[in-house]
Specification:
Layout: E1 2-4, H1 7-19, E2 24-29, H2 35-47, E3 50-55, H3 65-70, H4 75-85, E4 89-91, H5 95-98, H6 117-120, H7 124-139, E5 143-147, H8 151-164, E6 169-173, H9 193-212, H10 218-230, E7 235-244, E8 260-268, E9 273-280
Parallel strand pairs: 1-4, 2-3, 2-5, 3-4, 5-6
Antiparallel strand pairs: 7-8, 8-9
Helix pairs in contact: 7-8, 9-10
The chain binds pantoate.
């Protein structure tokens, strides 16, 4: 496994790889890697001749600077994990390398990027599109691997790929969960052990809500999820939206779409830490 810090060195390596007829898988990350990321990397290694993992804590997607400051940074441990998963290249550039000048591009794919996280974290998806479009241009991957934990992010990236005509397959990969059911996230390390146990209620209640959907309407299920989670000390729902799985527009009845997903954001604990998760109703 080779660690590369510049765009030019990455391009040189990848043009040699392409010359050998190998396919390229890209796994974009912000570091602080866990088993969820490892599952993306293993899948890419299985499906491609070469796997590039980018580690870049992208400042333009953080609307809250405190969130950026306290985001865990664990490059050495990340590289050890990636080596054990069989990654070929780690691309770990500096901020100056990626943004020699401020990126003034504006991406807009409503409603995918304007609802839920888009409404609560202004500019977040614009920053995601800025970095992911740059990575796609440098790497020109055959496949890009993204965790379904960030369900909305995948919907936005699909729109961007269609809009800009990137020629690659977006491969969504299932959420990896802790034994308690809590979705793995780099932010989980910021929770105390007790908060981690409390956070596990989020998915427990989401799963239970699938059984309510057989007898109750969309709005009643949505309200019950919010009430049940808020009733647990240490948890506070920011939003719970039940949406079409492709457009992410709100749905109002269970037969309105073939694909219906509930997306939640919850504040957990003292600091508090913002956690996201989702459940597929159909
Ligand atoms: O999902 C993430 O970790 C980030 O949003 C991504 C896709 C690596 C872009 O910075």
């Amino acid at each position: 496994m080779k660690v590369i810090n510049t765009i030019q060195a990455l391009r040189d390596e990848l043009s040699a790889v392409r010359g050998q007829g190998k396919t390229i898988g890209l796994v974009p990350t912000m570091g602080a890697l866990h088993e969820g990321h490892a599952s993306l990397v293993r899948r890419s290694v299985e499906e491609n001749g070469v796997t590039v993992v980018s580690i870049f804590l992208n400042p333009t997607q953080f609307n809250d600077k405190r969130d950026l400051e306290r985001y865990p940074r664990t490059l050495e441990a990340d590289c050890a994990l990636l080596e054990s998963c069989g990654a070929t290249f780690v691309f770990a550039p500096t901020v100056k390398e990626i943004y020699p000048e401020p990126d003034t591009r504006v991406f807009s794919y409503p409603p995918t990027d304007s609802v839920m996280e888009g409404a609560h974290r202004p500019g977040h998806f614009n920053g995601v599109c800025q970095i992911v479009s740059k990575l796609f241009s440098y790497v020109e991957p055959d496949r890009g691997y993204f965790g379904e934990k960030d369900f909305q992010q995948i919907a936005v990236i699909r729109r961007m790929v269609a809009d800009l005509g990137f020629h690659l397959e977006i491969v969504p990969c299932p959420v990896v969960r802790e034994a308690s059911g809590l979705a793995m996230s780099s932010r989980n390390t910021l929770l105390t052990d007790a908060e981690r146990l409390t956070a596990a209620y989020i998915y427990r209640i989401l799963r239970e809500s699938k059984t309510w959907a057989a007898e109750r309407g969309v709005e009643a299920v949505r309200e019950q999820v919010i009430n049940d989670i808020n009733a647990i000390e240490g948890l506070e729902v920011e939003y719970y939206s039940i949406v079409d799985g492709i457009t992410l527009a709100d749905v109002h009845s269970w037969d309105e779409s073939e694909s219906i997903v509930g997306c939640i954001t919850v504040y957990c604990g003292q600091k508090p830490i913002r956690l996201i998760d989702h459940i597929r109703y159909k």
